[in-house]
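Possible regression after last week's pipeline update?

I re-ran a chain I had predicted before the update to compare outputs. Posting the input and the new output here so someone can diff against the archived version. Not blocking, just want to make sure nothing changed silently.
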Amino acid sequence: MRKHKPQTNPLSFNDTGSHIRSSSTETSDQLRQLYPRKPKANETVAVAVSGGVDSMVTTLLLKKNEHEVLALHMILRPEDSPEPGEHIVQLAARLSVPLHVVDLRRPFQQQVIKPFLEAYRRGKTPNPCVICNPSIKFTLLQEQAVKLGATILATGHYVRLLRDESDGSLRLFRGRDRSKDQSYFLYRLDQAQLARTFFPLGNYLKSEVRKLAAEAGMQGYYRPESQEICFISDKDYRAFLEQHLGSDLPGPGPVVDLKGRQLGKHGGIHRYTIGQRRGLGIPSSAPYYVIGLEPDTNTIRVGRESDLRRREMLVTDVNWIAASPPTSELQALVQVRSRHRESPALLKPTTEGTLVHFLEPQKAITPGQSAVFYSEEEVLGGGIIEQVLS
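New output (post-update):
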C-alpha cells in the first residue's frame, strides 16, 4: 500500500483531463504522472445498466472503442419482479448488447436495507449508496461479470480513476463535472475492486453526455435520473421505517433545548435529522433546529441555527483507498454530506477511529453520514461519522 506523502504542491488537471500531473515546480525525482485506467483492447467489459442516460452512454462509448460489451441489470428491491422491465429490454436491443439480469434482492435486503433500518433505529442518518457500492455493485455484480466472461465492470459514475506509475496503485479523483461528481459515494472501494472497474464518464460534463445520447438518436430510450433512495418507491422514508420496524421504533419523547428544558414532544426520533427545522411544533420568535438525537433517552435536542456549527467529530470504520492508514496527524479536505463543500481539517488517528478537527466550524454534521477525505481532487478515503464532539 502507498504511504501518505506530504502534498507540497496541489495537483491540477491538464486541459484534456487525460491524466494528472504534479506542479511543474517540482524537481524531477518528485515528478509523478498518473495515467487513466482503461480496459485493454482485448478485454470484455460488462456495463451496469440502470436505464438512465449515464449507463447508456457508457455502453455507447465502449462499443465505439470496439470493446466486446455485456449489459448487466440488477434487480434489487424485494418487491420487484426478477424479470427486467420492458424499457431495459428495449434499451439493450437498441444498443445491440446482450442483456443479463442479476437478481440481488436477497443480499441487498441483508447488506443494505437491514443496516439502513438499524441505523435509523439507533438515531443515525445513514447513506445507503455508500453501503451498496462496495458490497453489492462492486463485489457481487463484479463477480457476476467475471462469471459471464468480462474482466472489467464499467459504470456511469462521474469520477476519474488513474494509475500511479510510481507504485502501480489506483487512485480515485473527482469527476470533471463537479456538479455531478460522485466520488463521495465510492470512498469505500479498495484496490482489488478498482482494478476491475472502469469509469468512462469521468472526463465528461453531464451536458456532453446528453449530447452524445442525442447524437446517437437515443433520447427516448432512457429514463430521467432520480436523487431519491432507490428502494423507497414513494419517497416517504418515515413511512418505510414505520412499516418495516413497527414497534421496534421508539415512540414519542421530549424535545429539549441545550439547557435541558423541555419545549415540546416529538413523534419519534426516526422522523428527524440533524439540521431539520420543520415539524418541531415549537412556538418561538426565531426558528429552532434539531441539534442532536439521543436514542438512549428518546430525546431530541434543539437549538438555534448558530448552534448547528461544530468543529470536531469522531469517524469510524475508515477505509483508505490507495495508502496505508496514517500513523500521525494528516491535513485533508473533508466532505460530510454529498452536497457539502469540502473544508480543511486535521485528521488524527486514535484507538477509537479518526478524530477530525475542522479549521472552521461546519453546519449540521450528522452521525451516520459519511466523512470523505480529499487531497485537492483525490479521494484519500473516508468513514462513518460516529459522534459529533464539539
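Follow-up from reviewer: compared with the archived run. The domain at 309-388 is CATH 2.40.30.10 (Elongation Factor Tu (Ef-tu); domain 3). Marking as no regression found.
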